[in-house]
Design the sequence.
């Protein structure tokens, strides 16, 4: 498909906007619909789109396997880190009120980091599954 | 949606089945918007009509088959399904009517979240506030489930199967 | 008759039963997984419907609105959707592996080759 001019151009035009939209959905999840899961899925969809048009190897050069696998774990660790930070600062596990001098600002901080953690894990998992499915050739027999 | 679901049952070409499933997911997302569930609709559209369809197509590419004709008429499953459906409809008879403001679901905990949520957390989107703050532990569990699914798929599909008597 | 006020449950149960029928009555593994996904989606709708209040709006607090739909089912179903796709991915990975080991993804053929004499298995 990378020989088709229209598809290539449209793909290159659209992907930055898709990624920007994913960032918007991630950070504006507080004020409108959105949040971590949706943003992670949209980023994964953008990269899948790129992989479909330009080939799996180009996508794997852009986002190597090691990084994707690291992303899967990093998101969960980030989430747990916020939880333990609550413990460290004197509150309960996953307590956001103690993360900052002002409890409401602490809530904002806590929610920001865990949504980021969720988005990273979801994106990593969906991408890794796509890579695994796409890399495996069909049976020859 | 009912038409799509029934068509999906009767179709044997698996590619058509997957396309119909994508259509069904999109219609579900639209119905969810009509039910005022905007967060859920966005997730269903992204996940159901997007990622699920891609994964199904990937699996179809690897499996490459058309469904076989069923060997015998499915009278027993049809009977079981219709029977279960009737029993369940009878069960839902006593549930609150559609959009009843006096239903218990609206009078117990929800008003507290709707009123105190933005004040305590500073976030207008109550769904995100509940998901990320009040019920953050559940979201941790869910993220762990996604993580485990990823690990499971990696474990299953990691290596290309080599020659039969080779790697095991 | 209270059917008119409960029609939403009937529609969603019809969809759920269609999904259930596909799971029980069809032998192809991928189609079974799609049927399972239909069952899951209809259950999401079944949960979301009681939360809706006609005349209300999405549960995003805004000074212009006073009546909101219930946010709690939304939270539950959001988690359920993500878990559903995780299960679907695992199921598909299993189907792919079964295809590679047995050469088919039709349930009867798989059962048949399992019940066949064990000399097939010992050569793998």
Sequence:
């Amino acid at each position: 498909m990378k020989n088709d001019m229209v598809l290539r151009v449209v793909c290159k035009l659209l992907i930055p906007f898709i990624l920007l939209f994913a960032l918007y959905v991630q950070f504006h999840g507080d004020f409108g619909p959105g949040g971590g899961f949706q943003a992670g899925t949209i980023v994964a969809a953008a990269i899948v789109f790129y992989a479909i048009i330009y080939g799996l190897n180009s996508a794997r050069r852009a986002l190597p396997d090691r990084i994707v696998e690291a992303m899967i774990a990093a998101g969960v660790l980030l989430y747990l880190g916020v939880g333990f930070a609550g413990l460290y600062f004197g509150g309960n596990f996953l307590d956001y009120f103690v993360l900052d001098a002002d409890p409401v600002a602490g809530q904002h901080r806590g929610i920001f980091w865990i949504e980021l953690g969720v988005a990273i894990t979801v994106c990593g998992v969906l991408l890794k599954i796509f890579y695994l499915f796409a890399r495996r050739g069909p049976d020859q027999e | 949606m009912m038409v799509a679901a029934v068509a999906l049952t009767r179709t044997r070409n698996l590619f058509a089945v997957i396309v119909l499933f994508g259509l069904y997911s999109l219609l579900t997302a639209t119905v969810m918007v009509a039910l005022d569930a905007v967060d859920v609709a966005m997730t269903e559209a992204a996940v159901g009509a997007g990622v699920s369809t891609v994964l199904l197509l990937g699996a179809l590419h690897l499996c490459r088959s058309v469904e076989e004709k069923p060997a015998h008429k499915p009278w027993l499953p049809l009977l079981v399904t219709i029977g279960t459906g009737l029993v369940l409809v009878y069960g839902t008879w006593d549930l609150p009517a559609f959009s009843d403001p006096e239903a218990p679901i609206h009078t117990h905990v929800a008003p507290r979240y709707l009123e105190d949520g933005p004040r305590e957390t500073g976030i207008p989107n109550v769904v995100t506030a509940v998901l990320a703050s009040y019920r953050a532990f559940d979201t941790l569990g869910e993220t762990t489930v996604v993580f485990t699914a990823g690990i499971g798929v990696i474990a299953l599909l990691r290596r290309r199967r080599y020659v039969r008597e080779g790697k095991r | 008759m209270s059917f008119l006020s409960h029609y939403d449950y009937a529609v969603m149960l019809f969809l759920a039963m269609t999904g259930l029928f596909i799971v029980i009555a069809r032998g192809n593994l991928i189609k079974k997984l799609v049927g399972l996904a239909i069952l899951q989606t209809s259950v999401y709708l079944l949960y979301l419907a009681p939360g809706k209040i006609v005349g209300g709006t999405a549960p995003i607090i805004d000074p212009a609105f006073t009546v909101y739909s219930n946010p709690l089912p939304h939270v539950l179903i959001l988690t359920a959707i993500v878990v559903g796709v995780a299960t679907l991915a695992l199921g598909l990975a299993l189907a792919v592996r079964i295809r590679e080991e047995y050469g088919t993804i039709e349930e009867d053929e798989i059962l048949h080759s399992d019940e066949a004499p064990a000399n097939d298995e010992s050569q793998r």
Summary: Chain A has one domain: 5-135.
